[in-house]
């Protein structure tokens, strides 16, 4: 006879508090592996020693695959397997403490109870619960001994992402929102939509105890390539048919949109959006994760640890090489042990969800041990050569003649790539520099030795490379030097003033013909629109230095600027009788400021007014103004407010109400866009009191 359906008390509040899952807004029990949780159920007539419990997950639960566990009541907790310990009994209820092993498969489980005394009875379902990774438990692969780091890298829903370029680092806030409603379910369905699951569901689920495996699978699922994943990348500068990548302020909207559309890729993402969404998913599942920004980041498409850039005689940056140097690139680090490589490679692991190069036939990247990158151990799993190149590649700058196909090396640099590698501080909104965790000091002997070691491991030392410059080319010395100096504010809406400084390094006079161009670019330094060009003849007496002022007016660049606000200025100097000299600078213009004021005290469940103030800094009208606002525990979803056009120099004040629903420090994020300014961002910490 089937047992009557028992009713279950999951002790949601106490279990959530003990398991650091209180922030999830769910009616379902969410607990972490390797740690006990309490369940009370009523309506079993059996004496407790006759009860057997069954915990199972995935489409084909099996003991062999460790996706099913059967266990009776015992007197002690087992470290290796699932176990149940009796807490208390009354006439018709039993309270038990259930523990899972620290290497249990994560995901949604079904829990049933069966009486052992009557063989015929079928198990009675107690309901479902979700099991997550446990960085607070020393037996877990993701164990993180420092509690403040657990709070930041698993429980913190607000992040700061660094961008801009190496000369001018800027930052913006992001709402990871990993505990928002339904996000956990979306993360679990992401796993069930992966290529691995589609090919072999049972095997895929059995591997879900391993953070290496899940990190790699999710790095593929966050981009749309191969598997109809979450985000479609677009680096064209034209974002029709979707939202421009720089307009997002959080992951929640992206993940919710993906689900609502029937899991069609959300348009559009660029590197920080991919990285932010992967942070949300991994933190949600309990793997400590952070975003990392690498400035002057190499994309080495052909695996030779060298990036080639080509310029024509006029100084135009040619978009002809698969290799590129991005102003910045954002990826992830997740914290877990590497039993496959050994203890010295445990700790932070690089994962990258931006679709750049295929790995194992699909767009995924990592986990690459950060220690392996620093030590040049590029033969270790996974994708170490690509990540090593991102922070270490050598750069070659070539002059290329499209008519003849002839290329000549202008100069090479080994210290350009991988600078100011940045992440948010633990518990503070500051930038922390982690460059020294990726490589030894630039220019030191140790750093060059590691580079040689990596080349050797990749078989590049012994192989003749016909595309490489000759030693004679590398050793040639230029007759002049040049640089662009900034002379004035770098702000959208103002003219751009620069000075080209040229110096004769020789003791005889030099005649130089200078071709200059300025292009708007995407942050990957891909040229989009020509803004300006000019050419000047220059004569330099021996050892002379000359300055040439350059002015690019706002009206000249205003129509051409991309949402990245980046301009690349180039001067190609043709020196009579000498080698050509390339002078180049990437400029990121700052947006005007936007100000957020909270008017009065923010209290739980009480209305509070917020005012957002923006002044139009230019002498023309701005239209199509939209303000979007989001903030965990302050408002649900994303608030969009249309703002009337603003005349020249006009100030706008937009007021709206919030009703906070949790106490503590919360972050309000705003994004303002109009036809002349893209995605002006700011955030404000709001301390919500009782």
Automatic annotation (TrEMBL):
Please report the organism this UniProt entry assigns to the protein. Answer: Spizaetus tyrannus (black hawk-eagle)
Q: What is the lineage of its organism?
A: Eukaryota, Metazoa, Chordata, Craniata, Vertebrata
> What's the name of the protein?
protein-glutamine gamma-glutamyltransferase
The record's active-site residues are 271, 329, 352
> What family is this?
Belongs to the transglutaminase superfamily. Transglutaminase family.
**Cofactor binding mode, per the note?**
Binds 1 Ca(2+) ion per subunit.
The record ties this protein, via InterPro entries, to:
Ig-like_fold, Ig_E-set, Papain-like_cys_pep_sf, Transglutaminase, Transglutaminase-like, Transglutaminase-like_sf, Transglutaminase_animal, Transglutaminase_AS
The record lists Ca(2+) as bound by 392, 394, 442, 447
Which PANTHER family does this one have?
PROTEIN-GLUTAMINE GAMMA-GLUTAMYLTRANSFERASE (PTHR11590), PROTEIN-GLUTAMINE GAMMA-GLUTAMYLTRANSFERASE E (PTHR11590:SF36)
């Amino acid at each position: 006879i089937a047992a009557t359906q028992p009713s279950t008390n999951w002790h949601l509040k106490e279990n959530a508090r003990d398991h650091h899952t209180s922030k999830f807004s769910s009616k379902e029990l969410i607990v972490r592996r390797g740690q006990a949780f309490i369940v009370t159920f009523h309506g079993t007539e059996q004496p407790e020693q006759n009860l057997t419990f069954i915990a199972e997950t995935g489409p084909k639960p099996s003991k062999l695959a460790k996706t099913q566990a059967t266990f009776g009541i015992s007197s002690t907790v087992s470290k290796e397997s699932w176990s149940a310990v009796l807490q208390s009994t009354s006439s018709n209820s039993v309270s038990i403490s259930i523990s899972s092993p620290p290497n249990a498969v994560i995901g949604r489980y079904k829990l049933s109870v069966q009486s052992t005394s009557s063989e015929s009875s079928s198990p009675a379902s107690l309901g479902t619960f979700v099991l997550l990774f446990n960085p607070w438990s020393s037996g877990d692969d993701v164990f993180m001994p420092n509690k403040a780091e657990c709070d930041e890298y698993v429980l913190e829903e607000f992040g700061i992402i660094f961008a801009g370029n190496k000369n001018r680092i800027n930052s913006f806030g992001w709402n990871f929102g990993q505990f928002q409603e339904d996000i956990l379910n979306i993360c679990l369905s992401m796993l069930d939509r992966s290529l691995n699951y589609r090919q072999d569901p049972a095997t895929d689920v059995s591997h879900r105890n391993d953070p290496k495996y899940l990190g790699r699978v999710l790095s593929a699922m966050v981009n749309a390539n191969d598997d109809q994943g979450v985000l479609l990348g677009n680096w064209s500068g034209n974002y029709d048919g979707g939202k421009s990548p720089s307009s997002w302020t959080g992951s929640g909207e992206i993940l919710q949109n993906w689900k609502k559309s029937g899991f069609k890729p959300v348009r559009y993402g660029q590197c920080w959006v991919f990285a932010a969404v992967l942070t949300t998913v991994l933190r949600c599942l309990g793997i400590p994760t952070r975003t990392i920004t690498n400035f002057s980041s190499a994309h080495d498409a052909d695996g030779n640890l060298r990036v080639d850039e080509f310029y024509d005689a006029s100084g135009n940056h040619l978009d002809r090489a698969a290799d590129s140097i991005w102003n910045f690139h954002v990826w992830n680090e997740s914290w877990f042990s590497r039993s496959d490589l050994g203890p010295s490679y445990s700790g932070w692991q690089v994962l990258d969800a931006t679709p750049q190069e295929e790995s194992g036939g699909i767009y995924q990247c990592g986990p690459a041990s950060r220690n392996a990158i620093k030590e040049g151990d590029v033969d270790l799993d996974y994708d170490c050569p690509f990540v090593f190149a991102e922070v270490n590649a050598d750069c070659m700058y070539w002059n290329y003649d499209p008519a003849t196909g002839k290329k000549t090396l202008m100069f090479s640099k080994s210290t350009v790539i991988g600078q100011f590698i940045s992440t948010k501080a633990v518990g503070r909104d500051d930038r922390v520099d982690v460059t020294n965790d990726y490589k030894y000091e630039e220019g030191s002997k140790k750093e060059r030795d590691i580079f040689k070691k990596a080349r050797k491991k990749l078989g590049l030392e012994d192989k003749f490379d016909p595309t490489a410059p000759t030693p004679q080319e590398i050793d040639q010395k230029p007759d002049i030097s040049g640089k662009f100096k900034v002379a004035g504010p770098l702000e959208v809406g103002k003219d751009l003033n620069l000075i080209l400084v040229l110096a004769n390094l020789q003791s005889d006079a030099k005649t130089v013909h200078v071709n200059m161009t300025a292009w708007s670019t995407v942050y990957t330094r891909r040229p989009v629109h020509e803004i300006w060009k000019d050419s000047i003849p220059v004569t330099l007496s021996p050892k002379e230095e000359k300055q040439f002022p350059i002015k690019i007016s706002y009206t000249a660049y205003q129509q051409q600027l991309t949402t990245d606000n980046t301009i690349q200025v180039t001067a190609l100097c043709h020196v009579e009788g000498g080698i050509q000299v390339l002078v180049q600078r990437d400029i990121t213009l700052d947006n005007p400021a936007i100000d957020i004021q909270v008017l009065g005290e923010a209290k739980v469940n009480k209305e509070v007014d917020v005012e957002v103030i923006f002044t139009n800094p230019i002498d023309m009208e701005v239209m199509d103004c939209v303000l979007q606002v989001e903030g965990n525990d302050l408002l649900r979803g994303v608030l969009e407010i249309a703002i009337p056009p603003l005349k020249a120099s006009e100030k706008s004040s937009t007021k709206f109400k919030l009703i906070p629903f949790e106490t503590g420090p919360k972050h309000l994020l705003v994004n303002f866009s109009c036809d002349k300014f893209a995605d002006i961002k700011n955030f404000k910490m709001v301390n919500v009191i009782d």
